[in-house]
């Protein structure tokens, strides 16, 4: 039986390849494992980038999550998010006040990022027990052009901006406020909940910053399954292995406290807000400098290796396989 969350990577890879539709020469970036957005040549000066994603865990701040996770994957292809089509499914018994609040939050989140809502669909249905957002976002390639997934290579350094688990930490603090306040205190819980806005879960500025330097070969947004799964996806798309130094992975004390309370692994926790960057070794310093000039924290966490070496982490117990989380750790709690 399938677990809650993304389809397991090997299953998704098999299904996408087995049931692939007729090739279209205008599709520059087709679907595939580790590819979170598509790109289409529409006959203009720049390709159009397309991304679809739902928000299924969050209730508080769902509109902000929706905008960020869709815009993030546009940015990971070197794109600029522009247009948004939104589907909102509401449970029976929803009030007009609830709907208006959701619309207002969506407007605020889009206005902050310069994104225009261009349409969508709304419906009250017995098929959902809480509001469910699904978004399709379109963007255009940025100044550096399209960054096609799968272009990273053996020897590239892996960098990570900000901290892992930002999204999962904020989500758990907002959805389990009373429990965490009793266990960890009001100060820690409130600080964790505020991570949704500060530093926030957008990596659009992170991507723009690192792309100001040369040598970036791939960008990936760690979402469900956390940074561990993102490393698997980035390496897999480029047919590489990876070696990660566990002690170098940046994590906030609030994330550590919440993960210890629930007994979950922060490496598998929703991590929108961090950006995984593959960069040629000779350009690492320039990329780090470009991020820090924008006041964006960035850490060197490992490198890509020969695929035959697998995907591993080096920690207190030596070298072990890096687990891929097909179900996010949040799913164990919510």
Could you please describe the fold and organization of this structure?
- The structure is a single chain.
- The protein has helices spanning 9-18, 62-75, 96-113, 166-175, 177-184, 186-193, 204-210, 226-237, 253-262, 284-293, and strands at 27-29, 38-40, 48-55, 79-91, 116-125, 132-141, 157-161, 216-220, 241-245, 276-279, 298-305, 311-315, 318-321.
- The chain is α+β, with helices and mostly antiparallel strands and 334 residues long.
- A 7-stranded mixed beta sheet has the order 8-10-7-11-9-12-13.
- A hairpin with a 7-residue loop joins strand 2 and strand 3.
- It is globular, with a radius of gyration of 19 Å.
The name of the CATH topology of the largest domain is Phosphoribosyl-aminoimidazole Synthetase, Chain A, domain 2
Low-confidence stretches: none
Instruction: Trace the largest sheet across and list its strands.
Output: 8-10-7-11-9-12-13
- Which structural class should the secondary elements be placed in? alpha+beta
Which term fits the overall shape? globular
* Helix/strand order: HEEEHEHEEEHHHHEHEHEHEEE
Indicate the percent of residues in helices.
25-40%
- The tally of domains stands at 2
CATH C-level category of the largest domain: Alpha Beta
Number of strands: 13
> How much of the residues is beta strand, in percent?
15-25%
Q: What is the number of helical segments per DSSP (H or I, 4+ residues)?
A: 10
- Rounded Rg: 19 Å
Global mean pLDDT:
95
- The CATH H-level superfamily of the largest domain is PurM-like C-terminal domain
Give the termini distance in whole angstroms: 19 Å
User: What would CATH call the architecture of the largest domain?
Assistant: Alpha-Beta Complex
Largest sheet: 7 strands, mixed
């Amino acid at each position: 039986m399938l677990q809650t969350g993304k389809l397991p990577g090997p299953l998704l890879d098999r299904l996408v390849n087995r049931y692939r539709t007729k090739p279209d020469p205008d599709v520059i970036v087709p679907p595939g494992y580790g590819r979170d957005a598509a790109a289409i040549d529409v006959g203009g000066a720049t390709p159009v980038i397309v991304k679809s994603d739902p928000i299924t865990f969050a209730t508080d701040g769902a509109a902000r999550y929706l905008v960020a996770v869709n815009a993030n994957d546009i940015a990971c292809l070197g794109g600029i998010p522009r247009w948004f089509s939104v589907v909102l499914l509401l449970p029976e018994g929803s009030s007009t006040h609830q709907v208006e609040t959701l619309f207002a939050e969506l407007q605020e989140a889009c206005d902050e990022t310069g994104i225009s809502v261009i349409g969508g669909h709304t419906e009250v249905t017995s098929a959902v027990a809480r509001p469910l957002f699904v978004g399709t976002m379109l963007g255009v390639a940025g100044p550096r052009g399209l960054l096609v997934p799968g272009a990273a290579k053996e020897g590239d350094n892996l960098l990570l901006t900000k901290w892992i688990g930002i999204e999962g930490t904020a989500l758990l603090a907002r959805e389990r406020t009373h429990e965490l306040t009793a266990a960890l205190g009001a100060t820690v819980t409130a600080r964790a909940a505020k991570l949704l806005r500060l530093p926030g879960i957008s990596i659009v500025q992170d991507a723009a910053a690192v792309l100001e330097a040369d040598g970036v070969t791939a960008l990936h947004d760690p979402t469900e399954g956390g940074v561990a799964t993102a490393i698997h996806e980035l390496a897999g798309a480029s047919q590489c292995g990876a070696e990660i130094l566990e002690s170098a992975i940046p994590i906030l004390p609030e994330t550590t406290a919440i993960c210890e309370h629930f007994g979950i692994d922060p490496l598998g926790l929703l991590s929108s807000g961090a950006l995984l960057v593959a960069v040629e070794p000779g350009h690492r310093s320039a990329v780090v400098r470009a991020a820090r000039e924008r006041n964006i924290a960035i850490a060197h966490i490992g490198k890509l290796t020969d695929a035959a070496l697998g995907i591993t982490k080096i920690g207190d117990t030596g070298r072990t396989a890096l687990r891929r989380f097909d179900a996010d750790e949040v799913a164990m709690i919510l």
